[in-house]
Amino acid sequence: MPTTSRTRRLRLLAASSAAVVAASALAGCGNDGSGGAGGGNALEVWVYQDASTAVQERAVERFNETSDIKINLTQVPGDNYQDKTRTSMGTPNAPDIFFNWGGGSISDFVEKDMLLDLTDTLNQDLEFRQSFLPAILDAGAVEGRYYGIPMRGMQPVMMFYNLEVFEAAGVEPPETFDDVRELIEVFKAEGVVPFSLGGADVWPSQMWLQYLLDRHGSSEVWQRIQDGDSEAWGDPAMLQTAETVRELVDAGAFGNNFRSMDYVADGASTFFAQGGAAMHLMGSWEYSNQKANQPEFAESHLGWGPFPVIEDGKGDPSAVAGNPTNYWSVNSSVEGDRLDAAIEFLKMSAEEEYVQDLIDNGDVPTTSNAGELLDSHENAEYAQFQYSLVREASNFTLSWDQALPARPATAMKNNIEQLFNGQLSPQEFVDAMQDV
């Protein structure tokens, strides 16, 4: 992991300190439109506003202590983040560096040459490139080229268990999908919903299709779809996936109220923690969510594991799905000394101090040697499991709604909602997706 001091390199970037200070003073904080790409000497950096921004705040403070080209960090509320980014890119108010999910979330920007291709930067600095797990770097790429640098913790989707509910029923967490089918009946007989699901938000339902398709047909099916092959929606594994979804819904796996239950407002997580449901398929952030809102449950009764194996499936059981991490991308209009400074800021994501800040924040970093530091994590057992899950994965599929451009992603979420609600049959779902 690169730990080279940035001070010496960044001193070479300064042109005139007096001019830099004056320009930085004029650049503002990025909220008033005075900054943005090319709008001043300071770099305008946008980040999604949540509990993890404290890590990026400290990184900016360290950067500004040594760099003559300063950074202004703007935290954008989550509900508006993607819309604000899409409407700002290509305008004077666009950020110079911005947080994103990689893949489809930035593919439109790549197509319009709005982003800096970072492939050569990574290839020319192998120490920097090798600081990150390959599966994480690759998951954020667009058509084999790198436009993002990992900057937060890994976020695989995994199965969470209410161990108190399992103990009361006298059963163990499932290893195979046949076990899942048996447990559905066990928990229904106990008056417990087998799986908590925030169906009102749709994307939690999408997680089920991601894993089912991967296990039924392998990650290659989705890769074809992501590469623009609409016919791949008609792959037999996709129909089998949709049929399995309907099987689960009809069997009562998600109860009767999942259509109105949300995740964003903590409905599904609270229902799960309070014993209403036995299991919850969710991103790794569920641990932090439960720790914040249901701390006693998180400490004593929360269990976790991989998605169960589908024994007759073609997919590799080690493959994972979710948001590999979040990425920093650079506006293609950034140039000269400001570009050099931007690259130096991106390289901070591989430095040990930044990695340790992520761990102290409860995240599991995506760097190649993070495992050596995870004993200091607040829950080292959970962190090591998550890190091993990703490190040993044969493939990491980016969440579908982030992997696809905005228009097909919106249509897909609408169709997934209708599949779960019974408004589309499995075959109708497949047909509808082939038409997108």
UniProtKB/TrEMBL annotation:
Keywords: Signal. Residues 1-27 form the signal peptide. It holds the Pfam family SBP_bac_1. InterPro entries: Bact_solute-bd_prot1, SBP. This is Extracellular solute-binding protein. It comes from Streptomyces sodiiphilus.
